[in-house]
C-alpha cells in the first residue's frame, strides 16, 4: 500500500485553525515505512538485512493549499529521483483531487564504516515500482 | 464512526522499540473530535452553538500490553460516566482482540462566565448512544 | 536538575488558542529522563545496568488552569508514591507561582521474565531524594 | 532572543536511537515565534496588526550529523533571503560547536484577498537585525 489516509484533528491544527506545518512529516515517514514493511523491508534493520544502513539526509515540504480541521488527506509515496547511493521520494498529500502539500525525503546508503554504499538491489527494485512524481 | 484505526510507525516508538507512552493521547482526541464532528457537533465551537464551553479537566492512560512498530491499533470511544455538568469518556485501544491501552478523558461544561453548566441536551443525547466501557 | 522550563508555541496550542491537552506528557518524560540521566541512570538501559526493566503502566494529567501560547511553564518531578516494585511520580507544571497542570506517571519494575521485581536499590535511593508531591 | 536550547529525550528519538527527523520542525517554529513575540510581533495576528497575513509556503531540513538521546541542541534563527513579499529564514541547530541540522522556512505575505503583499515595514526591519546564514 503506497498511501495512508487520515483526518486532521484539533491537535494537528494551530491557533489560526489551519494545519500546523510540521504535521506532514510524520505522515511521510509512516507512509514510507509502512510501504517498505508491507513489501518485506524493515527500515530500522537494514544493516542486519542488507549490510548497509540508510540515513535521512534531507526532508522538505511545499505548502500549496491550506487544510483545516477535519479535512481528510491522503499521503501517497512517489519516486522522485533514484541515484546510485541515494534516493529521493516524493509525498503527495491530496484532499480529494487537490494536491495540498508536496513533501520530499532524501535517503543515503552507507556502509557500517560510514562510506557511500550502493542502494541494495532488493530495495532499488522496490523503489522502481513506485509511480513517478513528475 | 466511533473508532479510528492506525498503524504505529517509527515516529511513534521510542528507542526501546515500543510505542511511546504519549502517542495514545492525540488518537483519543482525534477519535472523539471526529465522532462529534460526524454527528454534527463541533468541539471547538460549542460556545457559539450551545452557549457553553467544554474544557478537558483530566486525561489518563493505563498501559496493559506493549505495542511495537507496525502494529495496527483501533481506538474506540466509549461512555464511562455521564454526570450533570461533566462527563468521562473511555478510549479502548485494541490490537486485534487484545485491549492494549485504556484511556480516559474527562470534560466539564462551563458557562461563558466560567461557572458550572449542564451538558447541552443535544450533546447529552449523543453521549448516551455510545457503548458503555464497563 | 529536577525541572525543565519551556515556552508554549503555536504548535503546542489548538485552534481555540489554549495548550493542547497532550503536550504535557512528553515534557513529563523529558523531565524524568533527563533527571535520571543527570544522576547516572539511563532509563532505556535498566536491564543491562540493573537486571530489571521498568515499564510505564499509567499516566495522567489534571488540568487546573488554562495556559496559552507564549506562556513559560516549568515542569518539576516530585515523589508521589514509592512502593516495593512500582513507583508513581508527580509532575507539577507551574506558570510563575500558579500550578496549572498536575501530571503523574506510574512505573513498574519487572524481571526479564516479566515477573514483578523490586525497585533497584540505586534507583530507590535516588527517588527518595525527590521532594514529595503532598 | 534568537535561539532556543533543549535536550533530546526518548520521545524525540526513534527505535534506532537517533533523533527522529521530524522533531526539528516544531523547534524552528518555536524559535521563530518566540523571537517575533519577544520583539512585539504576534505571528498569529498579523492581519489585525499589519493588514496582511503571512503563510508558510515551504519548510526543509538538511541533516548533517546524527544526534542522540540527551544531546543538548541550540536552535538559532538566521536571515537567509529577504524578498519583497516573501522571506526565508534559516535555523541552525548546533550541538556545541557542531552544526548538526540546518533548517529553512519560507513565508509569503498576502493581502486578505490572497494576493501578494509587501513584507510589513516593521517586520522587514526586524528581519534585517538577524545574522545572515551565509
Protein architecture, described:
- The structure is a homotetramer of 134-residue chains.
- Chain A is of the alpha+beta class.
- Chain A is built from three helices and five strands, in the order βααββββα.
- The first copy, chain A, has helices at 24-38, 46-50, 121-128; strands spanning 3-7, 53-63, 72-82, 86-95, 98-110.
- In chain A, strands 1-3-4-5-2 form a five-stranded antiparallel sheet.
- In chain A, a hairpin with a 3-residue loop joins β3 (72-82) and β4 (86-95).
- The longest helix of chain A is centred in the first third of the chain and has 15 residues, at 24-38.
- The first copy, chain A, is elongated, with a radius of gyration of 16 Å.
- In chain A, 39% of the residues are buried.
- The mean pLDDT of chain A is 94.
- Chains in contact: A-B, A-C, A-D, B-C, B-D, C-D.
- The A-D interface holds A 14-16, 20-22, 25-26, 29, 44, 55-63, 66, 105 and D 14-16, 20-22, 25-26, 29, 44, 55-63, 66, 105.
Short account of what is shown:
With 134 residues, the first copy, chain A, is an alpha+beta fold. The first copy, chain A, has helices at residues 24-38, 46-50, 121-128, and strands spanning 3-7, 53-63, 72-82, 86-95, 98-110.
| Number of helices in the DSSP assignment of chain A | 3
Mean pLDDT across the residues of chain A is 94
**In whole angstroms, how far apart are the ends of chain A?**
20 Å
Enumerate the strands of the largest sheet of chain A in spatial order, edge to edge or round the barrel.
Answer: 1-3-4-5-2
Total beta-strand segments of chain A: 5
Amino acid at each position: 500500500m503506497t498511501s495512508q489516509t487520515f483526518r486532521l484533528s484539533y491537535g494537528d491544527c494551530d491557533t489560526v485553525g489551519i494545519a500546523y506545518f510540521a504535521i506532514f512529516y510524520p505522515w511521510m515517514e509512516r507512509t514510507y515505512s509502512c510501504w517498505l514493511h508491507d513489501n518485506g523491508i524493515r527500515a530500522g534493520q537494514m544493516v542486519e538485512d542488507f549490510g548497509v544502513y540508510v540515513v535521512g539526509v534531507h526532508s522538505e515540504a511545499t505548502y500549496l493549499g491550506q487544510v483545516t480541521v477535519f479535512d481528510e488527506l491522503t499521503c501517497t509515496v512517489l519516486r522522485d529521483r533514484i541515484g546510485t547511493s541515494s534516493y529521493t521520494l516524493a509525498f503527495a498529500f491530496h484532499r480529494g483531487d487537490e494536491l495540498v502539500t508536496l513533501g520530499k525525503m532524501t535517503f543515503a546508503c552507507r556502509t557500517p564504516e560510514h562510506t557511500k554504499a550502493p542502494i541494495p538491489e532488493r530495495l532499488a527494485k522496490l523503489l522502481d515500482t513506485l509511480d513517478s512524481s513528475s
